[in-house]
């Protein structure tokens, strides 16, 4: 049985991806900070073998300890989905909250690096890494500043990782979604549900399951196929800040 490691599996895109990969025949390593969510997901996916790891991707020692301590039956990793991440705040650069900047750069960029560095010794020829970027990494939008920069880093890291890992036969891809309704906006607006709801007002956003379908398709292609970059929008979105809304 092949093993897929999904970070940020306690919610949204990561949780849906864990479900989709379990349905595709993978056993799973699922990670996040909210341990009870991971336990519930593992119970839901039974009898698929699932190993849950609770750690903060910003904590390098915790990442190394968690991955280093994987039991033998989960020690080889075929697929890594670097999904953990969030936006924190939406403010002009001159008013930005420095703690939010740290959370985004440390989580979205350094966290992805720490997890990849820890997992790569466990991945062989034919492996596949999917980094979850964003349309925000391909286009600037007002007040997106540090989130956009963190996702632009994910886009460029994906391309450079693909070059570096070519000799090892490891494929690397970026999935860059537009608007997906998850806990993303609630986190961005620090629990302000009314403000989060305005993001999706009058529009049918993508669901986490839509992104999971795409990821499942990508990682189940034959070994000679490497889908390298995909931007995925809801039909009502044409660019980061260009969305058709019902009146
Ligand atoms: P959610 O808020 O629903 O999920 C985020 C996940 O990331 C959670 O499982 C959370 O787990 C985990 N996570 C966040 N920070 C950390 C951390 N420091 N350490 C460990 N785990 C962490 O949002 P989405 O599912 O939408 O987001 C998933 C990815 O998709 C993110 O990288 C996001 O930037 C990206 N994305 C989202 C889009 C959207 O519109 N929703 C569009 C484009 C990209 P826990 O809190 O338990 O630690
Ligand atoms: C999430 C999509 O447009 O809010 O990455 O940045 S956006």
Instruction: State the order of secondary-structure elements, H for helix, E for strand.
Output: EHEHEHEHEHEEHHEHEEE
Kindly provide the name of the CATH class.
Alpha Beta
Output mean pLDDT.
98
Describe the strand arrangement of the main beta sheet, using strand numbers. 3-2-1-4-5-6-9
Shape: globular
Q: How many DSSP H or I helices?
A: 8
Concise account of the structure shown:
The protein is an alpha/beta fold and 247 residues long. It has helices at 12-23, 35-45, 60-68, 98-119, 145-165, 184-188, 193-199, 208-219, and strands at residues 3-6, 27-32, 50-54, 79-82, 128-132, 171-177, 180-181, 206-207, 229-232, 237-239, 242-243.
Question: Can you describe this structure?
Answer:
It is a single chain. This protein has 247 residues and is an alpha/beta fold. The protein has one domain: NAD(P)-binding Rossmann-like Domain (Rossmann fold). The chain contains eight helices and eleven strands. It is globular and about 50 Å long. Bound molecules: NADPH dihydro-nicotinamide-adenine-dinucleotide phosphate and 2-hydroxyethylsulfonic acid.
